Structures are given as structure tokens and as C-alpha cells.
Amino acid sequence: MKVKVNSQEIELHYSNRIYIIYEQMMDKSIDPSDFNKITNILTLLYATILGTLQYKRLPASLDWNDYIDWVDTQANIIEEFSEWFVKETQAQKSPEPIKENKDKLPRKKKLS
After folding, report:
1. Three-class DSSP category at 2
2. Which residues of 40-64 are buried (b: 16+ CB within 10 A; e: fewer)?
3. pLDDT value at position 90?
């Protein structure tokens, strides 16, 4: 998902930085059941933008008030971000464990 903040276009990057920044700001872990609260989803988007700026080593000069001013000018940003975040979290889930194929395992020799 791309956003344009302060005339800088940013491709959002999903990483653990999002969770760290969010937890530092909110003093709690991300809980998807809280995403019906505007403060939580806006904080998550802010954490994602800041985390992306850090990850890409870009200047991170976006304070909260400037961020809220920016959000106020963005039509559908909350819905678009929510869809992007859900898609990213699903894509990042751990893969299924590898199942052993017993036919390919070496056979144990019987001791006589």
C-alpha cells in the first residue's frame, strides 16, 4: 500500500517494528478486537508509517498532530489500511509444518 505523506510517497512495509512502536505508544499489545476503536486503528497506521520510515532509513519527521491533519485529508485511508494490514498479517502467518514422508526416511536396521 502506498501513501503520500508530506509530499513523500511511501510504500508501507509490514514488520515487527509496527508492533514495537504500537506497543510503546499504547502501552499494550495489538489486539484485533480493538480495531473498531478509531484511536487504535489510527495509532496502528501511524506506527506502520513510522516503522516503514525507520525500515527504509527515511527521515521520520511526522509528529502526531501533523499525522492527524494528514489523515483528515485522506478519503478511505482507514478502510484501505485495515484491508492492507489484515492481508499482510495473513500473508505473514507461519507456514504449515513440514510433514515427514515415511517412505523417504531411511529404514532402521534390526539388531540381531
Report:
1. strand
2. bbbbbbbbbbbbbbeeeeeeeebee
3. 87
The residues, ordered by sequence, that sit 6+ positions from 94 with a Cβ below 8 Å of its Cβ are none
CA gap 39, 62 in Å, rounded: 17
Tell me the torsion sign for CA atoms 36, 39, 41, 42: positive
Q: Give pLDDT tens digits for 26-57.
A: 999 988 888 889 999 999 999 999 999 999 99
CA 97 to the chain's CA centroid: 23
Q: CA 31 to CA 50: how far, in whole Å?
A: 19
Distance, in Å, from the CA atom of 104 to the CA atom of 33, rounded to the nearest integer, reads 44
